[in-house]
Amino acid sequence: MHGHSNGKKLVTVRIIKHAFDFIHLLTGEDSLQVLVNAIALVEAAFRNMKTTAECLAEELISATKSSSDSYGIKKDKLECVAKSNR
């Protein structure tokens, strides 16, 4: 065989197979189903048609109301829980 990509496809296939094996071992679920679920979640996340300005405005409003929808509030609560677990 000649060419610049000899073995790269085989290496990639092995890495994916090992990743799927790890997924099955760690979750006990079918690896392909986990992949399908992840793809569906990513597609749902990127269907958001809001502008950056709208997202920023919602985040700022949520933060001032101490709403759990705010990323900053969620992160702060997570850090408090982590600190209490130490």
From TrEMBL:
Keywords: Ribonucleoprotein, Ribosomal protein. The keyword DNA repair does not apply. InterPro entries: Ribosomal_uS7, Ribosomal_uS7_dom, Ribosomal_uS7_dom_sf. It comes from the Eukaryota. Residues 6-43 form the Small ribosomal subunit protein uS7 domain. Belongs to the universal ribosomal protein uS7 family. This is Small ribosomal subunit protein uS7 domain-containing protein. The lineage of its organism: Eukaryota, Metazoa, Chordata, Craniata, Vertebrata.
